[in-house]
Design brief:
- By secondary structure, the protein is α/β, with parallel strands linked by helices.
- It is globular.
- β3 and β4 form a beta hairpin.
- Helix content is about 35%, strand content about 25%.
- The strands form 3 sheets. Strands 9-8-7-10-12-16-14-15 form an 8-stranded parallel sheet. Strands 2-3-4-5-6-1-17 form a 7-stranded mixed sheet. Strands 11-13 form a two-stranded parallel ribbon.
- It contains 11 helices and 17 strands.
- It binds nicotinamide-adenine-dinucleotide.
- The site of nicotinamide-adenine-dinucleotide has 29 residues, from α3 and β11.
- The site of nicotinamide-adenine-dinucleotide (NAD) has 29 residues, from α3 and β11.
């Protein structure tokens, strides 16, 4: 795919949409989920650090780096719940992969769509390992940009066949109902979170509010439920009532980051949690029994974005859904960067 080291393959939003439609949305999520599982299995190989967050009153801008020693990747991502009311996305992202050997970038991509795919893939991996095997009904609370991807990931990977939708904004639920028509899912729109959760085996909360919110209260959560809490992902931004956390077996990506950002920020710093990668390797028990309440306190970790970029690089092989960017200066003599600039003056004249 990369023709020479000085031009970098770039996947624009348009090319990402076309690539995803070429492959199929559900297949993309399933393939990314496989990459995430593979990378979680080799978790100790990766550089890990909580993401670098720059908070403001309105939102957050974050950098998410990691490396497996061969490739290096990072994502730039924002979270601005107030954007939606201004006609802007709550979450936008872009990112790149680079070669550890040369330090040169090897892939640059939009990651707003890729983030929705990888977040759906991550929830699906967590649900596959933690939900009851007979789980068929999903309550999806928060019907914004992430929601359809979440539903399709759980359908494809976990066998969910029914989705019960709730959002404080009925227009979001209507959009979600329309988008999921023809997906093969039975879609039910609900007037309250209590109604949405009735008969659900799995709940995914993906709301956006820059404050401590309580999307799920203690009385709503019964035995055997699996919860993916993905909207509580910043200091001061949570979705799940503390009493539910205390009744649940809690699973996280990277504890050092989740204790700052996840719903577990409401608990003591040493409250016991389990790491999803260790459930995948079999080192740690997942669901104890059919009555346990399991909570995946997902905040999004850099390795998932690395997995998504790795997937994208392989999906581009044999595809035309990218352009080459002239991104790396390439003087004939590597030490004569100045001369290269001067010679361009002559060409411009
Ligand atoms: N964990 C992760 O890896 C990850 C990845 C991407 C996004 N997120 C987070 O997921 C959340 C959803 O992202 P999005 O891109 O879909 O945002 P969005 O703004 O497109 O949608 C959020 C929806 O939540 C609804 N909502 C807000 N408060 C609610 C409430 N109390 N009850 C029910 N619905 C409510 C809004 O009306 C809106 O439709 C955000 O908080 C975002 O930061 C997490």
């Amino acid at each position: 795919m990369q023709k020479d080291l000085n031009t970098v393959p770039f996947v624009s939003v348009e090319n990402m949409m076309r690539l995803v439609l070429d492959i199929g949305i559900e297949t993309c999520i399933a393939q990314i989920a496989e990459c995430i599982e593979d990378d979680f299995r080799r978790w100790p190989q990766f550089d890990k650090t909580p993401r670098v967050a720059s908070h403001s009153r309105e939102g957050v801008i974050e950098l998410m780096p990691t490396s497996d020693g061969i490739d290096y990747g990072f994502k730039y991502v924002n979270g601005h719940p107030k954007n939606m009311k201004e006609g802007l996305q709550t979450v936008t992202a872009f990112g790149l992969l680079a070669s550890v050997d040369t330090g040169y970038p090897v892939l640059l991509s939009e990651m707003t769509i890729l983030t929705a795919l990888r977040t759906a893939a991550t929830s699906a991996v967590a649900t596959k390992y933690l939900a009851r095997k007979d789980a068929r009904t999903l309550a999806l609370i928060g019907n914004g940009a992430q929601s359809e991807f979440q539903a399709l990931g759980l359908k494809r990977i976990c066998g969910i066949d029914t989705v019960r939708l709730y959002d404080i904004d009925p227009a979001a639920t209507r959009k979600c109902v329309e988008n999921l028509a023809g997906s093969g899912l039975t879609v039910v729109s609900c007037r309250s979170p209590e109604e949405a959760i009735q008969g659900a085996d799995v709940v995914t909360t993906c709301t956006a509010d820059k404050q401590y919110a309580t999307i799920l209260t203690d009385n709503m959560v019964g035995a055997g439920l699996h919860i993916n809490g993905i909207g509580g992902d910043c200091p001061g931004k949570t979705e799940i009532h503390r009493d539910i956390l205390l009744r649940s077996d809690i699973f996280v990506e990277y504890p050092e980051q989740t204790r700052i950002e996840g719903d577990i920020q409401q608990l003591d710093d040493d409250y016991p949690v389990k790491e999803l990668w260790q459930v995948i390797t079999g080192a740690v028990e997942g669901r104890k029994d059919d009555r346990a309440i399991t909570l995946f306190d997902g905040v999004g970790f850099a390795i998932e974005d690395f997995s998504a970029l790795r997937w994208l690089r392989s999906a581009l092989i044999g595809s035309t859904r990218f352009t080459q960017l002239d991104m790396i200066a390439d003087p004939d003599d590597p030490r004569d960067l100045f001369g290269m600039v001067q010679r361009e003056k002559e060409r411009m004249a």
